[in-house]
Amino acid sequence: MDVSVVIPLYNExxxxxxxxxxxxxxxxxxxxxxxxxxxxxxxxxxSWSVIEALHQKNxxxxxxxxxxxxxxxxxxxxxxxxxxGEVVITMDADLxxxxxxxxxxRKMILEEGYDLVSGWKKKRYDNKLTKNIPSRFFNAVxxxxxxxxxxxxxxxxxxxxxxxxxSIEVYGEMHRYIPVLAKWAGFRKIGEKVVEHRPRKYGKSKxxxxxxxxxxxxxxxxxxxxxxxxxxxxxxxxxxxxxxxxGLGMAVYLIVLxxxxxxxxxxxxxxxxxxxxxxxxxxxxxLAGFLGELISRNSPQRNAYHIEKKTGF
Length: 313
Ligand code: UDP
Ligand code: MG
What we know:
Bound molecules: uridine-5'-diphosphate, magnesium ion
CATH superfamily of the largest domain: Spore Coat Polysaccharide Biosynthesis Protein SpsA, Chain A
CATH architecture of the largest domain: Alpha-Beta Complex
Number of strands: 7
Structural class: alpha/beta
Strand order of the largest sheet: 3-2-1-4-6-5-7
Largest sheet: 7 strands, mixed
Oligomer: single chain
CATH class of the largest domain: Alpha Beta
Number of helices: 10
């Protein structure tokens, strides 16, 4: 199988036939062995019956339907598990991404050796105020924090080596940060390609303004998880100790003053309260570190590594 196209969708019945036809044309023209995996994320319209009808006509079109709406990340994850193509392409179902980009993306993976190529909607057809401007800011922060030089992290159109998608777990709403997940999993060759973007033809966007708040919280968690999830004590233990020692030192100093100076009153010194607070915060952080260690010790992912190659077995 040359290409698996994974398409998460939620209530996109009108778009599907057109999208399938376009994809079939591209695959035929490029003589690719392919599968199209539609992951129906609990649609309440008739998307699923459309998918079944498409499968009847073309067995390369496959479908998975969730019991309810779990979100785009879950849909992508399930599609990744099912994908068997050498190259895996993801795209949105709403016809905003163009299937004509697939051959060039595939080429970058196969010939230039990229682990992941992200689309870049350089000219974007979405609402300026609610999407394009916040998205620019969002991408700039993500670029800085992650050290990955992409202009458009959250583009639905991406191409992957099969090994890349099998090694990452897209959960929560982390579909916005798949390149970051891939980088943490050791896939360093991440590129981008300017892709054509089109206005939404049918239906409406499934994400509101909350996307930006959630997006930033997710960015914080992903950075923290990537760095410290397997060794929480290295973060909490360090800062806990720092706070505790600072507080303790300050408190001891003030107590010594109290016993040496006659007119010295502890309770009207702000520093005394700061010292107490710091020791308490320090202990709390230490405790959080211990709890984190206990949790990660019991996590099924405590040893989640990926072997790239082996020899001599
Ligand atoms: N989607 C999904 N589950 C959801 C929300 C969205 O599978 O809970 C799909 C949606 O059907 C589309 C893709 O994710 O195929 C991108 O969504 P949308 O076009 O609404 O996002 P936007 O283009 O506005 O960023
Ligand atoms: Mg869209």
